[in-house]
Design goal:
42% of the residues are buried. Helices cover 30% and strands 24% of the residues. It holds the Pfam family Pyr_redox_2.
Length: 461
């Protein structure tokens, strides 16, 4: 694409990057979209993939397929790791640990946020977050494996621990996960086991606030609480999860008092977010201010102060308390594309204005919340509105049609058709690419020959 046209480099294929690249698809510029997954993920439905309602294909679409008809847009697989603002280049890392360099005239940072464990990174080993497809598949494995292991145990503390699920964080994702786990236990799995009663599974929802869904109106949050309690979710408000271990969690009341220790073999973390490492690197090399979570301070047009060629969109924008929701990322991506087009036409940029399109949260089958300005809807009507909104924003006609068909089948029957999970193999190391060397599989230790080696009882496995 070395034809003298403006080069636009977009980091991230989420809502912000996708909508920016789409709008520039027929503009006289060369666009490169760099993403570490090579696909667009519809994050608002990630929890439905984790709990077996939807498949990976329902909520994701390859970026190459999305932009196949846009000849001025190329998509590349890689993770941005270093910015040189003087040379206007970005160094990216391939999955095999080698690197390559991309140059730009305009840089759009739409890298999004990652799960935050509030300086307790060790929690991640036992409490996966909910940000990527890998997270969703990991959670699916943990959820369904927990019931399978419980089926093999006699009644007692060990079985109870496997049938106890703790969700940290009372925002939309935490509420949706907690509701889905209870619905799965009481509806989908209810008649499939012989030794256990899945309906007895405990789901604890923990949050530091005085109510769930703090971004919603209090009356809607109260309705959500009643629906969750009716489902059987145990609410733990005004507490912090202060320790996560292999076999349980410790919960500390904010107002003081003794800690609560819960034996639980499945813990899911939705309690906070922080900037990805590359965003923090961007702020450092550009001399930009950022908040505690790593959101970057920007000018009214979403460009970084002193660097009009660098834009930030989506969750990473640290301005005007913009919400970390899909609508903000979409609108930000469209705004940056409009700024680029106006520049090509010799027109000045306009400031970014976010239009609040409302919030929605799924509680259970037939129950959802929708808040759009003064309009507040809950229950069945909210559930229908929630469905229409999510279908409208799914990427690709095939994804929309297949998702609607799957939802209709799930409504008609209790089954969840995407419950398959894999436990991996212990007989041979996995041969896979990885983003960091420390994440590579550890080879099995060599077995030293000893007395009787080679007999059936001593054969290495």
């Amino acid at each position: 694409m070395s034809n003298g046209r403006m080069k636009v480099l977009i980091i991230g294929g989420g809502f912000g990057g996708l909508f920016c690249a789409r709008r520039l698809g027929r503009v006289d510029v060369d666009v490169t979209l760099l993403d570490r997954a090579a696909g667009h993920l519809f994050q608002p439905l990630l929890y439905q993939c984790a709990t077996g309602t939807l498949s990976i294909g329902h909520i994701s679409r390859p970026l190459r397929e999305e932009f196949a008809r846009h000849r001025n847009v190329r998509t590349l697989l890689g993770e941005a790791v270093e910015l040189d603002p003087g040379a206007r280049t970005v160094t990216a890392r391939r999955p095999d640990e080698t690197t390559f360099t991309l140059d730009y005239d305009v840089l759009v940072i739409a890298a999004g946020m990652q799960q935050s464990y509030f300086n307790n990174a060790q929690f991640a080993a036992w409490a996966p977050g909910m940000k990527t497809l890998d997270d969703a598949l990991s959670i699916r494995q943990r959820l369904f494996t927990a019931f399978e292991i419980a089926e093999t145990l006699p009644p007692g503390r060990d079985r109870d621990a496997w049938l106890t699920f703790v969700v940290a964080g009372g925002g939309p994702t935490g509420v949706e996960l907690a509701g889905q786990i209870r619905e799965m236990a009481t509806r989908t799995l209810a008649n499939e086991f012989h030794s256990i009663e899945p309906e007895e599974a405990r789901v604890l929802l923990c949050d530091g606030g005085d109510r769930v869904l703090k971004s919603f109106a209090p009356d809607l949050a109260e309705k959500a609480t009643r629906t969750l309690q009716k489902l059987g979710v145990e609410m733990r408000m005004g507490v912090h999860v202060t320790d996560v271990r292999r076999d349980g969690v410790t919960v500390t009341p904010k107002a003081g008092g003794p800690d609560e220790v819960h034996a639980a073999r499945t813990v899911l973390w939705t309690a906070g977010v922080e900037a990805v490492p590359f965003a923090r690197h961007i702020a450092e090399v550009l001399g930009a201010k950022s908040d505690r979570s790593g959101r970057i301070e920007v000018d009214p047009d979403l460009s970084v102060p002193g660097h009009p060629e660098v834009f930030v969109v989506g969750d990473l924008v640290g301005r005007d308390k913009l919400p970390g929701v899909a609508e903000n990322a979409m609108q930000g991506g469209l705004h940056v594309a409009a700024c680029i087009r106006r520049e090509l036409e010799g027109k000045p940029r306009r400031p970014y204005r976010y239009r609040d399109l409302g919030s929605a949260a799924y509680i259970s089958r037939g129950n959802a919340l929708l808040q759009v300005g003064p309009v507040r809807v809950a229950g069945f009507v909210g559930w229908l509105a929630w469905g229409f909104i999510h279908i409208a924003f799914l990427t690709g006609v095939r994804n929309r049609v297949s998702t609607v068909a799957t939802w209709l089948a799930t409504i008609a029957r209790a089954s969840r058709y995407h419950r398959a999970f894999m436990l991996g193999s212990d007989s041979m190391p996995e041969q896979r690419y990885t983003w960091s060397a420390w994440d590579a599989p550890t080879p099995p230790p060599e077995v030293q020959p000893g007395p009787g080696a080679g007999s059936p009882d001593h054969t290495p496995r």
